[in-house]
Each structure stands twice: as structure tokens, then as C-alpha cells.
Design brief:
CATH architecture: Roll
Radius of gyration: 15 Å
Strand order of the largest sheet: 1-4-3-2
Number of helices: 3
Strand content: 35-45%
Length: about 140
């Protein structure tokens, strides 16, 4: 499957706190930046964090949750589909760095079409992130 990179911009309460999270915890390469935003390479996609003073120093973004496979999935969320080895390495690194998971790494829809490894966690502002993987991305990504 050949995909073009996506671009997404999200609000953050504190630029340096979020910059450290995306750079040091997720190992995202940093691109252009200004006093109020920073570009990151999120597995080949462009993620831009923008300082939002309306959130406040201790504030978090508002989220909703929906039930998926008996788990409470935060909405909205952004994420990336990774090759399984990359997903496993990221899960191990996040555990090593004591990241608190909203949904611990696990395989959902076992034995069903669309079986996938997934995990959810929040950035320091409360933006929900999902990383998932499939054994055969081309076949399983949109399988019903």
C-alpha cells in the first residue's frame, strides 16, 4: 500500500512540555518551529503542535469516550498504523518511559477480520494518541 503522508495540527497547553514529549518519548524528529508551534515527523507524517493559551497551564483538551471491544476509546484521537515490529518497539519504549496508557497495548478483534494490535495514551495536554498494527496491513486495514 502506498500512502501519502497526512498533516495534522493539535493544540497544546505548554509548547516546551509537549516538544519534549514528542521529541524525547515518541522520538519524533523536529522540523520547523516558531514561538507558538513546532513541526514533527511522526512516522513519516507531519504533526504540528500549536500552543493554545486558552487551555491554560494545568488544562486538558476535552475528550469523549466510546466503547470499542469492551474498552473506553478516547475521541477525538490521532494515530498511526505501524508495521508490527515498529509497534512492538514503541510499546516497549513507552513502558520503559513509564507512559500511562489509557488502553494498554493488546490485540483487539482476535481471530476476526481486522484483528489489530493497539494502544492508547495521552500527550501532556491530554491529546489522545493511538498506535496500531496489523499482521498484514494491506489486507486487514479496511477489512470488514
Amino acid at each position: 500500500m502506498s500512502l501519502t503522508p497526512f498533516h495534522v495540527a493539535i493544540p497544546v497547553r505548554h509548547l516546551e512540555e509537549s516538544r519534549a514529549f514528542y521529541r524525547d518519548v515518541l522520538n519524533c524528529g523536529e522540523g520547523r518551529s516558531s514561538d507558538c508551534w513546532v513541526d514533527f515527523n511522526l512516522y513519516g507524517h507531519q504533526l504540528v503542535i500549536h500552543h493554545d493559551p486558552a487551555i491554560g497551564e494545568e488544562g486538558k483538551v476535552r475528550l469523549h469516550h466510546n466503547s470499542v471491544d469492551s474498552h473506553s476509546v478516547p475521541v477525538p484521537h490521532i494515530g498511526v498504523v505501524l508495521e508490527m515490529a515498529d509497534w512492538e518497539a514503541l510499546a516497549a519504549r513507552l513502558k520503559e518511559k513509564s507512559v500511562a496508557f489509557v488502553i494498554e497495548p493488546y490485540v483487539r478483534f482476535k481471530g476476526q477480520p481486522g484483528e489489530q494490535a493497539t494502544m492508547f495514551f495521552y500527550d501532556p495536554t491530554g491529546n489522545a494518541l493511538e498506535f496500531k498494527s496489523f499482521h498484514d496491513i494491506d489486507k486487514q486495514l479496511f477489512e470488514t
